[in-house]
Amino acid sequence: MRHVEPKAYRPNNISIGPCHHGAPHLRNMEVLKKSFYRRLFDPNNDANGAKLDEAFRFLEEQESSVRRCYMDDIKLSGDEFLQMMLVDGSFIVQLLRDLSAREFGRVPCLSTWMLPIIRRELIMLENQLPIEGENSKSEDAATKLER
Fold first, then answer.
1. Which residues of the chain form beta strands (DSSP E)?
2. Closest CA to 99 of 80, 83, 122, 126
3. pTM here?
4. Contact in structure between 85 and 59 (CB atoms under 8 Å)
């Protein structure tokens, strides 16, 4: 399928998950994703340090099952993979929090042109994080990231 319509699989602006992580043309958005990660786990709030440790431990426990969700072999070390999952997941959670707080209008730290592009690229098949809907562990992870 990738060869039939590569544009449906390859993001042009933002990478979510391991499939396109580290692609040179997507690196500029890493700064934005990390700023959302820092906002979610605000270092000025002492309680966030514990939440970050808890979220990282949870991801460590789930690493092998998460890796199995991807068809291709992931060439990231354990720490690189976990950090990528944490930053990318935090970006999505914080983006949704910001959008919800503003009734899904404009997000202050994003240029107006960015949100439609991010939306489109978040639904690309190779630009997603796995969520096991029937598994309560995925609900636990979302709850830990939202707190």
1. none
2. 122
3. 0.79
4. yes
